[in-house]
Design a protein that fits this description.
- By secondary structure, the chain is mainly α.
- It has helices at about 70-80, 85-90, 90-95, 100-125, 135-140, 150-160, 165-180, 185-205, 205-235, 260-275, 290-320, 325, 335-340, 345-380, 385-390, 400-415, 420-455, 465-480, 500-530, 555-565, and strands at about 30, 35-40, 50, 530-540, 545-555, 580-585, 590.
- Helices cover about 55% and strands about 5% of the residues.
- The strands form 3 sheets. It has a 3-stranded antiparallel sheet, with no helix packed on it. It has a two-stranded antiparallel sheet with strand order 4-5. Strands 6-7 form a two-stranded antiparallel ribbon.
- Strand 4 (about 530-540) and strand 5 form a beta hairpin.
- Helix 4 packs across helix 18 (about 465-480), helix 5 packs antiparallel against helix 6 (about 150-160) and helix 9 (about 205-235) packs parallel to helix 11 (about 290-320).
- The longest helix has about 35 residues, at about 345-380.
Length: about 600
């Protein structure tokens, strides 16, 4: 990843700074100690937001439109939560916990974690209801000092870990399962890349239709899990003759329970993976009309539906497959269930096709959600080639972020050893994510404190403190316990190499974020004799705007600060600028105005 280029100074962006009621064109700036807040309103029906001026500006009109309704909110969450996890990881979780009883308890913990996490995100969205990008926005606003640190840190994390290779690999594995053939490693990778390419093209070519397709496949996914659940109940009722003892796994359910901390940590990591997606709809907040109420009702419903179906599906699996066989199933757990109940034949093939469609819907949901995160990172001005990340041309979609995700996913499908790819990639994504989620949850208290200082009223939603503390403690557990070595030695974990490799790589990514920040914000300006200042750039005529960070020579900093507010807008004044015009490295011509 290269370093952002600093752009020449512009004298064209004029956005008034006034002490008036906020609107899409008149921006109030409020100072509180060393922080400055802008008060901005968007056209999605939300209340005005008070956000620290160093953050990316609010897009008063969403350049991606307002195509996200209540049904799409549900399926954005459902399709990311119910991806490949419930079909692929139950065997790994059973193998890690050692018993059916503890495995089911872990699935319950996952539901509680999702509810707690959703509540935290809902309160944060209540403070910033006109910004898409979820974690990007909330970390930016919870930790505004040192300036741009968390935007840069999350930018590095987002770019390096912007992949969905594990889901694509499982999709490819199911495709070969349907075909009845055993692929080579490179055949499996090739099909995974092809599948992800098709999903990427779907979301690139049309925003609204890709959402419709995701909703349709989400309905198929719900029907599939309902079918599995009902089948499990039929098996438990003793109505499948060739399964003679469906209750065997539920007698002495806690027999074999492990006490090894590493095994329990691996199980929790996989549980987190299966429930990740409970906050996916928060990535498109600025595309939702009346976002907080819509998210509160329909986001919560999506989690409850998924949690219920997860428990019923696990019960179905345990009723039809012996514990020993199920623990060995790994990525194809659902296929083992289908074969056990229906045998090899058309029914098993048909259900595998449904699982395949479910995995594809997951790819779409993840692409849609994470593209908004990467776009929001670009809008903060901390990535090079600002327009590439922010622009929605030519299809009305964030093409740049989609291309980044396709590229990184392709690399991560090809690079890791095929046998360990799934587990390593799942763990690698979860570990640094746990660090950021911990910072995010603690940041809720910082935002509350600042809002109290501003004498703002209570947000539309406030998470209970006990729920917030529970969420914080779970993140601490996720971060700490993976360092406990496996009981049979450091090379006997879920992968063939050292058990804590994903922890070290995750921490290395965070350290890389810090190095990047120091080099970019301190060393380069000191060597170059300038300071970094933001300015607001209108990218397109559809409402897209962004911060662009510029370098201001030290002898002109005082004049710059006098002429611009903290967000980078020109203050209302009467002055004559230079008649010079220039063309920046992004190819956009800039011309000064007489104000």
């Amino acid at each position: 990843m290269g370093f952002p280029k600093f752009w020449p100074r512009s004298t064209t962006s004029e956005v008034q700074t006034v002490n008036a009621n906020p609107s899409s064109s008149d921006i109030s700036v409020i100072h509180d100690g060393g922080l400055a807040y802008t008060v901005e309103k968007a056209e999605n029906g939300s209340k005005p937001s008070y956000q620290e001026a160093a953050g990316a500006p609010v897009e008063s009109k969403s350049p991606l439109g307002y195509h996200v309704g209540w049904l799409t909110v549900i399926f954005l969450n459902v399709n990311q939560m119910i991806g490949t996890g419930i079909f692929s990881t139950p065997g790994t979780i059973l193998n890690s916990t050692g018993s059916v009883g503890l495995a089911l308890m872990y699935w319950t913990i996952g539901l509680l974690l999702a509810i707690a996490g959703f509540s935290v995100y809902l309160e944060l969205a209540s403070y910033f209801p006109n910004r898409s990008g979820s974690e990007v926005v909330y970390l930016e606003q919870a930790y505004p000092r040192p300036k741009h640190f968390f935007p840069i840190a999350f930018a590095v994390y987002s770019v390096i870990l912007s992949f969905s290779s594990s889901n694509a690999i499982v999709l490819a594995r199911y495709l070969y399962q349907i075909a009845g053939s055993k692929p080579t490693d490179w055949q499996l990778k090739g099909v995974a890349i092809a599948s992800y390419t098709v999903a990427s093209l779907c979301v690139i070519l049309h925003n609204k239709y890709s959402l419709w397709l995701m909703n349709l496949l989400g309905g198929v996914k719900i029907i599939t899990l309902i079918f599995i659940s009902i089948t499990g109940l039929v098996v438990l009722g003793g109505n499948v003759p060739h399964i003679t003892d469906p209750g065997a796994n539920f007698r002495n359910a806690f027999e074999g329970t492990t006490t090894n901390g590493n095994d329990l940590a691996v199980a929790l990591v996989n549980i987190v993976f299966t429930y990740s997606g409970y906050a996916n709809a928060f990535n498109v907040v600025n595309e939702i009309k009346n976002p907080i109420q819509t998210l509160k009702r329909n986001g919560a419903l999506s989690i409850l539906v998924v949690g219920l179906l997860y428990m019923l599906c696990n019960i179905a699996y345990f009723s039809a497959v012996s514990r020993e066989e199920f623990a060995k199933s790994k990525e194809i757990a659902a296929s083992v269930f289908f074969v056990s109940v229906f045998g090899k034949g058309r029914a098993e093939q048909a259900l595998n096709v449904l699982v395949l469609l479910s995995a594809f819907a997951n790819l779409l949901a993840v692409l849609i959600g994470q593209s908004r995160q990467v776009r929001e990172v670009g809008r903060q001005g901390v990535l090079p080639f600002t327009n590439f990340w922010v622009s929605t041309k030519p299809f009305g979609t964030p093409v740049g972020p989609y291309l980044l995700k396709w590229f990184m996913t392709t690399i991560m499908i090809i690079a890791p050893p095929a046998g360990d790819a799934f587990q390593f990639v799942v763990s690698l994504g979860v570990y640094p994510e746990g660090i950021f989620h911990l910072a995010l949850a603690i940041g809720v208290y910082f935002i509350r404190y600042r809002y109290k200082r501003l004498r703002r009223g209570a947000p539309d939603f406030r998470v209970w403190d006990v729920v917030l503390i529970f969420y914080i403690l779970l993140q601490v557990y996720i971060i700490a316990t993976p360092w406990i070595p496996p009981k049979d030695g450091p090379y006997s974990g879920e992968v063939s190499f050292w058990y804590a490799t994903y922890c070290v790589v995750g921490i290395a990514i965070i350290v890389l974020c810090g190095i990047y920040y120091i080099f970019w914000m301190y060393l380069l300006p000191r060597l170059g004799g300038y300071k970094v200042r933001p300015e607001i750039l209108s990218v397109e005529d559809n409402g897209a705007n962004t911060h662009r960070l510029v370098k201001v020579p030290l002898d002109e900093v005082a004049k710059w600060d006098e002429e611009h507010d903290e967000a980078g807008r020109l203050r209302r004044r009467r002055a004559v600028g230079s008649a010079e015009s220039f063309r920046g490295e992004d190819g956009i011509g800039q011309e000064s105005k007489i104000v």
